[in-house]
Amino acid sequence: MPGIPTEAGTMTRRERERLMRRREIMEAARTVFAEKGYIHATLDEIAQRAEYGKGTLYNYFAGGKEDILFAICDEIYDDLCQLIQDAFSPQTMATKPFRDAFHKLVTSWIDFFVERQELFMIVVKEAYRMTFSDDRDKAAYFHRQGERVVNVLIPPLESAMQAGVLRPLPPHSVAHMILGNLKGIQMHMCLHAGDDCREHTHGDPVPGSFEAAAAFLTTMLCDGLLAQSEPYLATNTLETSQEA
Question: Largest CB tally within 10 Å, which of 63, 70, 75, 233?
């Protein structure tokens, strides 16, 4: 799967021009995918939007439309990893409680999704389609990307557990649970909002505004459903998870 070229101050003019053209092609593809959907978008339309010949697109993306999609996915997952790193940066963790950092992550995640709503939905659909296809390489690609995001979230969770802020649960499982809920709230906001997440007004179970939705998810994941603790159940659950 193609990756994104690494930017460096030592790049030659030719390398900078190639990077610029690559970005222009990807930006054109994002627009066409958003307008037509991935399945119905054609390489000819992408080339026309980018104002390059179709042959030029193959020079940068040998696998055509599919390679462009994977390059876009690479960037999206890069950005998601960066969101987590920014939310739990050393500066933030040194000056703010874990709950505030977590709330920042949820808010940033929702905003990131809404700003790229059409493209994000296309990526989600294609990820599911390819993950459950017979092509093991494509399925493995999306699995690796998902695990990459999980692995970026694990260190701040481990630090919070070691500091006694979070319960000492398996961090890998906790990371999966958090990311699963973030994806779930994205889908809820869009499925109940018609064509635009910004018009989301349903009051149950997710409040309408981004801030209210972030506060809701932060409360649910940090405080849980119980109105008060149940020591026996909590102890048994923790012992079971540690044995597993």
Answer: 70
Closest CA to 158 of 178, 172, 140, 145: 172
Residue 78 included in any domain: yes
For residues 138 and 124, what is the distance between their CA atoms, to the nearest angstrom? Answer: 14
CATH number of the domain bearing residue 119? 1.10.357.10
The span from the CA of 86 to the CA of 80, in Å, is: 10
CA distance 61 to 134: 23
Going from the C-alpha of 4 to that of each of 68, 69, 127, 205, 213, the distances in angstroms are: 10, 12, 19, 39, 33
Residues in the chain: 244
Q: What angle do CA 221, 118, 152 make, to 5 degrees?
A: 40
**How many CB atoms sit inside 10 A of residue 113's CB?**
24
pLDDT < 50 regions, the chain: 1-6, 194-196, 198-207, 234-235, 239-241, 244
Long-range contacts of 171-176 (CB under 8 A, 24+ apart): 173/241, 175/150, 175/151, 176/150
And the tokens for 113?
């999704």
Overall number of domains in the chain: 1
The token duo for 62 is 């040998």
Tell me if 177 is assigned to some domain.
Answer: yes
